[in-house]
Write a structure and sequence with these properties.
This protein is an alpha/beta fold. The protein has a single domain (5-269), classed as TIM Barrel (Alpha-Beta Barrel), CATH 3.20.20.60. The protein has helices at 5-11, 26-35, 52-65, 81-89, 103-113, 127-131, 136-146, 156-160, 162-166, 178-184, 196-212, 223-232, 242-258; strands at residues 16-21, 40-44, 71-75, 94-97, 148-153, 173-176, 215-219, 236-241.
């Protein structure tokens, strides 16, 4: 069975860089996986209208064309047994569950993502073991150690409970959701800011992850933000999204031709229409 390439890097103390796939495109996922620039690609079922069939083909394309060197990770729309089992049975090598606020919620996620005796996931289907280059028996024997379980802490309550959440056995990555974390503290949503409440919350998560031996993760708007977060102690780091890159490049090209300056925020947040 091929090892989970991203988990191997994180366990060795190496950074793992990834990209958020917002476009829901099998072709884009395949091209990015074949390029091999990223360690993981996040197939989004939470904020993107991606149906499970398309997500399954995206994850298969990522695992197959990269021969396991690029890790397909699925972000589910809710931390339920249905969504977690479905994406893992569709071939995801990791699951990222949003809005985790309590240690009990974290324990449920681990339970749904693991085979017995530590969980209650059932063996079935062929997509999971094929994507790891293994037979079913080998996959079932090794999957508990090779499936990455990541949770998002993105609320004030989650930060307040971070020590108990990080102590739950089986959690590999605690991923800060920066936009929603800003909102939870009554701030404008953004990937990063100098707001004291936000910075204090992030530092508490990073410090706790370091103490508990859990990987700290975060999504950034671009490479500059990713470099800063790596210096801060995050190692599971997203450097943007396929949609963000597409719209930024398109906006820059049109801006150079028309003399339109780059916006203060991101091109992906701009709607420029005559009114």
């Amino acid at each position: 069975m091929r090892p989970n390439a991203t988990l191997s890097r994180l366990r060795n103390g190496e950074p793992a860089l990834g990209l958020w796939l917002q476009l829901g495109s099998i072709s884009v996922a395949r091209m990015l996986a074949a390029q091999g620039s990223y360690n993981w690609l996040l197939v989004d079922l939470e904020h993107t209208a991606t149906d499970l069939s398309t997500a399954s083909l995206m994850m298969s394309a990522i695992a197959d064309v990269s021969a396991g060197r690029v890790t397909p990770v699925a972000r589910v729309p809710a931390g339920t047994v249905f969504h977690i089992k479905q994406v893992l049975d569709a071939g995801a090598h990791g699951v990222l569950v949003p809005m985790v606020n309590t240690p009990d919620e974290a324990r449920d996620i681990v339970r749904f993502a693991r085979y017995p005796p530590v969980g209650e996931r059932g063996v079935g289907g062929f997509a999971p073991f094929v994507s790891f280059g293994a037979n079913r028996a080998e996959y079932a024997r090794e999957a508990n150690d090779q499936i990455m379980v990541a949770i998002q802490v993105e609320t004030r309550q989650g930060v307040e409970n971070i020590e108990e959440i990080a102590s739950v056995p089986g959690i590999d990555v605690i991923f800060v959701g920066p936009n929603d974390l800003h909102i939870s503290y009554g701030l404008q949503p953004r990937y990063w800011s100098a707001e004291p409440d936000f910075l204090n919350a992030v530092q508490k998560v990073v410090d706790t992850c370091k103490t508990r031996g859990v990987t700290a993760g975060i999504l950034c708007a671009d490479s500059a933000g990713a470099i800063d977060r790596l210096k801060q102690g995050f190692t599971f780091v997203g450097v943007g999204s396929d949609a963000g890159f597409l719209l930024r490049f398109a906006g820059l090209q049109a801006g150079e031709v028309t003399g339109t300056p780059e916006p203060a925020g991101m091109w992906s947040s701009v709607v420029k229409l005559d009114r």
